[in-house]
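queue> pop job 88
queue> type: inverse folding (structure -> sequence)
queue> payload:
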């Protein structure tokens, strides 16, 4: 019973982010930008990143594709927007661990926030690439900043 309620809540979060994506406003002059796609299912994502004077990130995620890829991009953007740029790789690593069924502490899950709603994707290995698409794009952007 409790698991069914939890799954239903997670599904609602994912669908809300799919239908009402956050942080989709394009950044006029981003510091970094990348477009990625998943050729297996046609998902497309564009991630823009600006680094403010306070070293905090501003992110935009746009694209089209399945509910998982688009919700994951929205959840990622909502979670990391305005975080210090140096914290972003840690969030990518946490998400990767979540999606690979690794145990995360309560503190780690708190850092991910609603992104944890995507944990059910790990039951469907073919969908993991969909969920990872925006995170891989962000990781590529971070590699460009160094």
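queue> result:
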């Amino acid at each position: 019973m409790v698991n069914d309620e939890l799954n239903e809540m997670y599904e609602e979060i994912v669908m809300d982010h799919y239908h009402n994506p956050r942080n989709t406003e394009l950044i006029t002059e981003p510091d970094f930008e990348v477009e990625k796609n998943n050729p297996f299912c046609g998902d497309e994502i564009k991630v823009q990143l600006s680094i403010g004077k306070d070293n905090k990130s501003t992110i935009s995620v746009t694209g089209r594709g399945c509910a998982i890829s688009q919700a994951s991009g929205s959840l990622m953007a909502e979670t990391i927007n305005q975080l210090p740029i140096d914290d972003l790789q840690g969030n990518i690593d946490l998400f990767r661990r979540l999606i690979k069924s690794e145990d995360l502490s309560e503190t780690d899950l708190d850092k991910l926030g609603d992104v944890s709603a995507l944990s059910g994707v790990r039951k469907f290995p073919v969908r993991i690439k969909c969920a990872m698409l925006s995170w891989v794009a962000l990781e590529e952007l971070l590699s460009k900043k160094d």
